[in-house]
Prior knowledge:
Distance between the termini: 26 Å
Strand content: 15-25%
Amino acid sequence: MDFDYVIVGGGSAGATLASRLSENPNVSVCLLEAGGRGDSLLVRAPAAVVAMLPGRPRINNWAFETVPQPGLNGRRGYQPRGKALGGSSAINAMLYVRGHARDYDEWAELGCEGWDWHSVLPYFRKSENNARGKDSLHGANGPLQVRDQDAPRPVTDAFVEAGQTLQIKHQTDFNRGDNEGIGHCQVTQFHQADRVGERCSAAAAYLHPVLHRPNLTVITAAQARRILFDGKRAVGVEYQHKSSVRQVRAGKEVILSGGTFNSPQLLQLSGVGRPDDIRPHGIEMIHELPGVGQNLQDHLDFTLAYKSKDRDNFGISASGSLALLRHMLTWRKTGGGMIATPFAEGAAFLKTDPQIDRPDIQLHFVISIVDDHARKLHLGHGFSCHTCVLRPKSRGSVRLASADPLASPAIDPQFLSDPEDLAVLIKGVRRAREIMAADPIAAFADKELFITEEPDDAALAEHIRNRADTIYHPVGTCKMGQDDLAVVAPDLRVHGLQGLRVVDASVMPRLIGGNTNAPTIMIAEKAADMIKADATA
């Protein structure tokens, strides 16, 4: 099969790209996705994420693990990633967060011209259909439906109020460029027509409505095996569909949108990257590019959890089960109620040092007890407060574990390999505990789980090493820039190769200070315009 563009990966970036590129009826687009359609009830019902996130069984989830982490006392970390059209936007908490304006200005200073806040803001606005309406910072005509939460729980309101009693400013919009403060996040959720209250994944926003286009071919259950090259030019992709191996050809470009783990893995499987990562697996080198799979960054997260007598949250009890059934009926009728929750209903962006220029920690307030990514359950009800380091200095890698394209990559975040990350996280956890001890949130807590004493720094560090893990924001393994470890240029073309780009979170040179789904969609929106412009130049 021959197409103009072949996109590998139908996640947040790939779904956006496939939709935007196929707007031109004169070009043909093929999208390869290893998972399914991403339109089941489990995806559409926001609270059903609890069935997909743990990866037991694997439902719309790659459910990766890291290699053992010395910084986490030798534990393997868990890395859930979406495996369906929509990618991780099909299994995430739906939080619509852009990060801080300074994050993008810093990208430009690092050699990524055209990626400063002023330049990327139009693409955030272009993507948005915000229920609050259009203004200088928000859009109301884009595919991605964004709204305020329907009915955050009273305990979430108490969390926000507790922060305000500690002189943390109330933030009503985390997406205006300066996100410092405490408040409720907006979410990527339908607020129009007959789908009110459903998850608005990137596929639901961009892709599902245009699957009828004759110039768009979407192949699900298609696992990419390698990029096909003619010399230094990418000309297609070999993929496995069920038990057969097939090929698809690209007349203009191959675009990798597999994400931070799968995009570098596919490059390495195709002979692009560091020789030491490729030749030991018997793979022929096509192009040496030392940054492939390097520069892995992620938000390491530590969870505080509290038992509560309050039942207006998620928990395991007879009364809770009956209430859940009522909420399910409410959601099916109106799109409201607790089934519409993102779980992470409250947030805060805070500075651990007043002298720094932007928040360096983020809190997620969750209306359930979260232990080991909801893989360990607790009887009763409660809530959690997560703390993550927004700009970690630790750097890891993604390498081949095998020449088998169906094998998982070797993911090594090197969590806490830079001691400054631990120091910041300790300060952040102490700040979170201070909020959780303040009224009115303190009145909801019956007892704190996991930490039963008032720990000194050494004891708290040990708690962190024993329990911390990702909050699901890996980036950077095909970084954008002009330095020796850059994999793509600012136009997202792979250095030294033709007809090949990477468009996903892996191109971020540095991790932004917030959740990564909205920025990934922005990257794809901007990339689509660059690709269209190049095609007509």
